Amino acid sequence: MSEGRIDRKYLIRPFSYINDSLGTNLLKILVLLLIQIVLLFISKSYLALKVVCAATLASVLAEILCSLFLKQSLFENKKFLVSIVQGLLCGMLIPQTFPMVTVFIIVFFSMLITRHFFGGFAFTWINASVISVVILWIIGVEYFPEYLVNMDLLAVRNPSQLLIENGSIKVFPFDPNVTEFCNQVIFSHLKVSVPEGYVSLFWDSFSSIPAFRFNFITLISSIILFSDNLWDLLIPAIFIIVYVLLIRYISPFLYNGVTFKGDILLALLTGGTLFCAVFLISWYGTVPLTVTGKIVYGVIAGIVMFLLAGCGTSPGGMIFTVVIANIVSVIIQQYENHYDRIRIKKQLESFMNDDAKNDQEI
Fold it and tell me: Which of 100, 187, 219, 233 could form a disulfide with 54 if both were Cys (CB 3.0 to 4.6 A apart)?
């Protein structure tokens, strides 16, 4: 290397990241949520957009107020970005008929308490977005949609098909053509066929809660979020698998349905199940750290989802599932910490014993 000249190969950064940074992941989530916001605008769901905007504004203002009070930078540790994402998640979980002023006030104060008095982002043991919705549920349960299924409907083989046929689930004009194409090109090789209406349910359920609507976009979002790091998929995958197995094999016994024929599509495509799995159940700071802890957490979350949300169309089972799972996570993390202390103590004792043996030999 000649004097006054720096070889380019020495300018390479000394560190490389195996996974995306927190900021990158938050930006991904933000973009994916904005896609659903755009779909709300295209579908002229203006009431839902107003509620989402109210929740997001409340979340951001809560972050600004705390930053000013604590004399901290608003952009430190991605606080501003976190507040936007949490506000959007919260707004997506609130029915579009909920009064905007109430949404703003409740979200503002609940964000202040859960995000900061409980330790701040990544240290808060409970999801701030979800706890805000739980409070709104308590004070305004009448704004949340009702169950679309009952005991009689669950007793049949495909409750979702009956909901489509009786008009409870709307069908798009393009549904027949897309269904026919899928049956001929894809499902014919599996020797099965899908009835008309499921494509519409998969694309837009028309729920009053935005998070329950665009299942196809949520599924694509999961591929984008977890493609770079399959480790992050562990909890959502176990959560979905446990819930689906319970729906398929256990629910028919509870509702006198067709044995081992629980309606999986109804469970997955209604009640915000996919949205919960992708964006909520493994939120930062609310999950265990070890593989065993994550597996236990996912299994318990799936069981709780089955007990609270049932077989589908639940208006609030998802949000209470996340809250209970977060509480269980605290217990699991205590066991993890206890195990780590025991393991470290044994390692130190082993090291000291080895060191004493070496001294005796000398």
Answer: 100
Helix axes of 100-112 and 79-92: crossing angle, nearest 10 degrees: 140
Distances (CA, A) of 162 to 9, 148, 359: 65, 11, 79
**pLDDT per position as a tens digit, 256-275:** 877 778 889 999 999 999 99
Q: In which residue ranges of the chain is pLDDT below 70?
A: 1-20, 74-75, 77, 115-123, 354-362
Angle, CA of 235, 237 and 238, to the nearest 5°: 65
Nearest residue to 152 via CA among 248, 255, 247: 255
Q: In whole angstroms, how large is the CA radius of gyration of the chain?
A: 24
Element (H or E) spanning 37, and its range? helix 22-42
Q: Which amino acid is at 69?
A: F
Instruction: Compute the distance between CA of residue 361 and CA of residue 233 in angstroms, rounded to an integer.
Output: 51
- How far apart CA 342 and CA 9 sit, in angstroms, is 46
The pLDDT tens digits for 132-143 are: 999 999 999 999
Interatomic CA distance for residues 150 and 257, integer angstroms: 12
In SS3 terms, 282-294 reads as: CCCCCCCCCHHHH
- CB of 68 closer than 8 Å to CB of 12: no
- pTM, two decimal places: 0.88
Nearest to 304 by CA among 318, 287, 283, 284: 318
